[in-house]
Amino acid sequence: MTLADLVGQGKVAAVIDLQFGDTGKGKLTEMLSERFDVVARATGGNNAGHTIVHNGNEIVLHSVPCSIVHDSEGKVSIIGNGCVISPDDFVDEINALRNAGYSTDNLFVSTKANVIMPYHIARDRAHNASQKNKGIGSTGRGIGPCYADKVARRGVRVEDFLDRDALYARVAKAVRFYPDVYGDVGERKAREIAFDIVEKTERSREVLARYAAETIEKVHEFLRRGKKVLIEGAQGLLLDVEFGTYPYVTSSSPSVNGAASGVGLPARAIDFVLGVVKFPYQTRVGGGPMPTELGGARSREWCANPENNCERELREFGVEFERGPRGQVIYDRFHERINELKNSEDEFEQGVGIRLAGSEYGATTGRPRRVGWTDALAVRYAAMLNSPDAIVLTKTDVLAFAREFRVGYAYATPTERAIQRFDPSPRFLESARPIYKTYEGFERIDLLGNGEQELPDSLKLAVKELSDFVRTPIVAISVGKERDKVVCLRECRGK
Ligand code: IMP
């Protein structure tokens, strides 16, 4: 049985990230979408960056589900009611897809999704985008303020956005709640500002109108007709506004609960949950605690500096690179110098080596992602809240050529020598020191089609121990960007 067969047993399945996002859900969703008729995004907006490789092209999607590359085959893609949508960026994303030859005829955007307005972006950039001085380090896309307005009942839904008069009335009210952006304006001035904002939406309203639909009704109708629905999670459980490392979180709920409500389904409708875990390292972008971070505060500060990016790291740490046709940097992920960094005595440098090998730079912002060893306690906590039927490990190939790797199985705290409890509160995590189990490293994983046998023994042992610890079967390991770079384990094949 393949991974797609396994997950495809569900009528409604969800792919949920059990860490801080960026675990490679995009590739998995695209792969799995072959067994589903409808693929839906349920939460978040263009803060996400889902990278997939399709027909040799690398595509980064922000709001549109990864199934869009199969639109011409009749696959339906939905941006659900729980999402927030940035009209101008949506238009750009659609244009980029169409220019690359993809059709978008079967894409629908929920009329109930909330719209990110310019004042949301302005406030987000002014207050949350910096991760210096313990800031959240948001993606600066207006996500937080948009969800805040939704909860405060002054949000603009897609259905309001498409109705010029309703939009004008909503915006004229809303801008008075943004003195930090527009000053302390009276009613008349507020109307002028609203007029200006609405004027600039002509083009995006026209485009969005083509895709807007009552998607809640549609999803239920599809299910009644026996169609299968896959929900593509965004971000990760540890960034969940309810369960994550609050306040260092996004403003939506990337849990299985959020996945259901974000497409208009009852929670019990989801009958297969696939958890995704980057292993044996994990990443975090933006501020907030991560006890296993390699290089601790130094790494955190380095990654918070907006001047640091992939190119800067390549130069600074002496890795040769070239430039591609679009000006992008191209380098060998297993360059000798990168392998050397992974094996450095200095943990900060180990983190840099892993970051370069895994191209761990924000798909949306280009920021270096903070790197640490996989925290099994955090994964177990995330699994407790999402009850995954199975877990897939991703990006394991990145650790090739490291002499050893580690997995955190306990914490030492100021009051206890070793505990196996996870509390997402920053107060707890900031003072928790991880206790690791160390495993022997491995060389490059070259798949010849023999499956599990091709995995190094130390990796197999680590996978088994993680699976036992999290009490969830680990069914596959992804070891590269391409679709065929997935090793199905006995737990998957045996089902
Ligand atoms: P926001 O979602 O832009 O408000 O950002 C809030 C926090 O979530 C910041 O720490 C971001 O770096 C993080 N975040 C948001 N979206 C993603 C994502 O897709 N991957 C990883 N981190 C994310």
List the helices and strands and how they pair.
Blueprint: H1 3-7, E1 12-17, H2 25-32, E2 38-41, E3 50-54, E4 57-61, E5 76-79, E6 84-85, H3 87-99, E7 107-110, E8 114-115, H4 118-127, H5 143-151, H6 158-161, H7 164-174, H8 179-182, H9 187-199, H10 202-211, E9 212-213, H11 215-224, E10 229-232, H12 256-261, E11 272-278, E12 281-284, H13 296-304, H14 310-316, E13 322-323, E14 329-330, H15 336-342, H16 347-357, E15 370-375, H17 376-386, E16 390-394, E17 404-412, H18 426-430, E18 433-440, H19 457-470, E19 474-478, E20 486-488, H20 490-493
Inosinic acid (IMP) is lined by residues 20-22, 47-49, 136-139, 141, 143-144, 235, 239, 248, 250-251, 285-287.
Overall description:
With 495 residues, the protein is an alpha/beta fold. Among the domains are: 11-110 and 210-278, Adenylosuccinate Synthetase, subunit A, domain 1 (Adenylosuccinate Synthetase, Chain A, domain 1, 3-Layer(aba) Sandwich), CATH 3.40.440; 115-205, Adenylosuccinate Synthetase, subunit A, domain 2. Helix content is 35%, strand content 18%. The strands form 5 sheets. A 10-stranded mixed β-sheet has the order 9-7-5-2-10-1-11-16-19-20, with helices on both faces. Helix 4 (118-127) packs across helix 5 (143-151) and helix 15 crosses helix 16 (347-357). Bound molecules: inosinic acid (IMP). The site of inosinic acid has 21 residues, from helix 5.
